[in-house]
Design a protein that fits this description.
Order of helices and strands: EHHHHEHHH
Number of strands: 2
Bound molecules: zinc ion
Keywords: Membrane, Transmembrane, Transmembrane helix
Strand content: under 5%
Main location: membrane
Radius of gyration: 25 Å
Distance between the termini: 52 Å
Subcellular location: Endomembrane system
Protein name: VIT family protein
Organism: Leucobacter chromiireducens subsp. chromiireducens
Strand order of the largest sheet: 1-2
Length: 243
C-alpha cells in the first residue's frame, strides 16, 4: 500500500505504519466500489431480463460484460487519479526540499508561524519548530504545510487493483442471483438480493463514516431501486417492440 521513500533510523523498512483513519478510508473506498458494482450490474441484467426474460445466455453475457467493463473503468480511473495525485505530491515535496536547502531561516520562521496558527504560544512554536527541524525538517514541513507524509505515497497499482476487486465482488451479487434456476421470477429474486446487498453497503458505509444509519441505508436502497425500475422499464419497452 505504500512505497518507502525514506526509512527513519530505527524503523524497520517493511513495518506498516498507516494510521487507522487511512485504513478506514480504504475500507470505505472498497465498500463504495462494491456498491457501484451492485447497482450498475443490477441495472444491466435486470434491463436485459426485462426484454428477454427467458434468454439466460443473453442475460449472462450482458451481466459479465457489465462486470468487466465496470471493473476496468473503475480501476483505470483510480490509477489515473492516484498517479496524478502522487506526481503532485512528489513535486510539492521536491519544491519544499529545495526551499529548505536554499532558505532555511525563512523556512524555520514559516514552520514556527504555522504552529502558532495552530494554537501554540510563540515561544513554544519556535521551540517545536527548531526541534522538529533538527530532527527531520522535510517531514515536519510536509506534514504541517502540505498535509503529506513523504514516506507514505499511495501506489496507483494498489488503488487500481483494489477498485477492480471491489467492483467485481459487488457486481457478482446481481449477476449470480439472476442466473439462479428460478424461471420467470428471476427478476424479482435478483431485485431482492440487490436491495439486501445495498442495505449492507449502506449500513457499512454509514458505520465507517460515523453517519446516521437509517437515512444512509434508505438513500442507498432508493437509488438502487430507481436504477432497477428504470432499466427494467426500458427492457420491457424494447422487449415488446422486438417481439
Ligand atoms: Zn516549508
Amino acid at each position: 500500500m505504500s512505497e518507502k521513500a525514506v526509512t527513519a533510523p530505527g524503523q524497520h523498512p517493511h513495518e506498516p505504519h498507516e494510521n487507522l483513519g487511512q485504513r478506514l478510508n480504504w475500507l470505505r473506498a472498497g465498500v463504495l466500489g462494491a456498491n457501484d458494482g451492485i447497482v450498475s450490474t443490477a441495472g444491466v441484467v435486470i434491463g436485459v431480463a426485462g426484454a428477454t426474460p427467458g434468454n439466460v445466455l443473453a442475460i449472462a453475457t450482458a451481466g459479465l460484460a457489465a462486470l468487466v467493463a465496470g471493473a476496468f473503468s473503475m480501476a483505470g480511473g483510480e490509477y489515473v487519479s492516484v498517479s496524478t495525485q502522487r506526481d503532485t505530491e512528489r513535486a510539492m515535496i521536491a519544491k519544499e526540499k529545495r526551499e529548505l536547502a536554499e532558505m532555511p531561516e525563512e523556512e524555520l520562521r514559516e514552520l514556527a508561524g504555522l504552529y502558532e496558527q495552530r494554537g501554540l504560544s510563540p515561544e513554544l512554536a519556535q521551540q517545536v519548530a527548531e526541534e522538529l527541524t533538527a530532527h527531520d525538517a522535510l517531514a515536519a514541513h510536509a506534514e504541517v504545510e502540505l498535509g503529506i507524509d513523504p514516506d507514505e505515497y499511495t501506489s496507483p497499482w494498489v488503488a487500481a487493483v483494489s477498485s477492480f476487486v471491489a467492483f467485481s465482488v459487488g457486481a457478482l451479487i446481481p449477476l449470480a442471483v439472476i442466473l439462479l434456476p428460478v424461471g420467470e421470477s428471476r427478476v424479482w429474486v435478483a431485485a431482492v438480493a440487490v436491495l439486501i446487498g445495498l442495505l449492507l453497503t449502506g449500513w457499512i458505509s454509514a458505520v465507517l463514516g460515523k453517519a446516521p444509519r437509517g437515512p444512509a441505508i434508505l438513500r442507498n436502497i432508493v437509488m438502487g431501486g430507481a436504477t432497477m425500475i428504470a432499466t427494467y422499464a426500458i427492457g420491457l419497452l424494447f422487449g415488446v417492440a422486438v417481439s
